[in-house]
Amino acid sequence: MESEEEKGGDDEEVMSEVHLGCPPSFSGPYISVFTVSGILDVARNLEFDADGDLLLPRRTTNAPHSRDGLSVKIQHNITSSISNVGLQVWKAELLLSDFILHRASCSSQLHGVTALELGAGTGLVGLLLARFANTVFLTDHGTEILDNCAKNVQLNFGSLNYQAKIYVRELDWFNCWPPKTKIEEAPCTQKYSWTSREIEDAENASLLVAADVIYSDELTDAFFSTLETLMSRGSTKV
Predict the structure, then answer these.
(1) Which domain holds residue 101?
(2) Residue 24, by phi and psi: left (phi above 0), alpha (psi -120 to 50) or beta?
(3) Which end of the chain has the lower number of beta carbons within 10 A, N or C?
(4) Bridge partners for 80 per DSSP
(5) Comparing C-alpha atoms, which of 200, 2, 25, 167 is closest to residue 83?
């Protein structure tokens, strides 16, 4: 259980270590471009040194991009309140993105899946998944975070060669699954509400992903409760 002092800390401004060195006064929103080179042919061109360590070529600033590369535009804040940390880019989000790209380049396991991201934040991971999946649900809580996530989906249409249908949806871990549908919600709150078909599709997702969502005892309990419910419904999930 959080102390009263901890509960009152939601208004405290925090900064992701990804943003260290940025001026705190420039909170955002700001658009960063993440460039990935050669993701489609990386598995065929791995080189190792005499000790068996992977050799990683470094692209210089003026070097041309690989024709198989891609750039992802992400709108984010430099700082945020604790309740709005989903507006920032966090290191675990980059690590999970790297994992997704690695798996997609080495196998076809992610091709054609239905995926659901819990606590999607800026949506970077789900946007990369959308290159390979059939359907991606980007879920989070709070209108400001969901609006920013939806903006990032919009920013990258046409540049990521999406294969998947992408849905930005509200998912409050403190509420029971399944969430209320558009018919049950008031018209003013329907922007990120679910349809009955979408709930069915989400329950049949084969892949659930989440990055950097463990930072509060109560939130952690709610996260695992939601995860347990999702894992027990519909198709088998990883």
Answers:
(1) 13-231
(2) alpha
(3) N
(4) 14
(5) 2
Per-residue pLDDT band for 7 (boundaries 50, 70, 90) equals: very low
Is 2 among the domain residues? Answer: no
Cβ neighbors of 24 (< 8 A, separation 6 or more) are 13, 15, 78, 79
Q: Are 229 and 177 in contact (CB under 8 A)?
A: yes
Structure tokens at 108: 């076809």
Question: Is residue 7 in a domain?
Answer: no
Contacts made by residues 140-144, CB under 8 angstroms, sequence distance 24+: 140/86, 140/170, 140/171, 141/170, 141/171, 141/172, 141/173, 142/83, 142/84, 142/86, 143/191, 143/192, 144/84, 144/87
Residues 120-175: tens digit of each pLDDT: 999 999 999 998 899 999 999 999 999 999 999 999 988 777 778 999 999 999 99
Q: Is the pLDDT of residue 235 over 90?
A: yes
Secondary structure element (H or E) that encloses residue 139, with its range: strand 135-140
Per the domain annotation, does 150 fall within a domain? yes
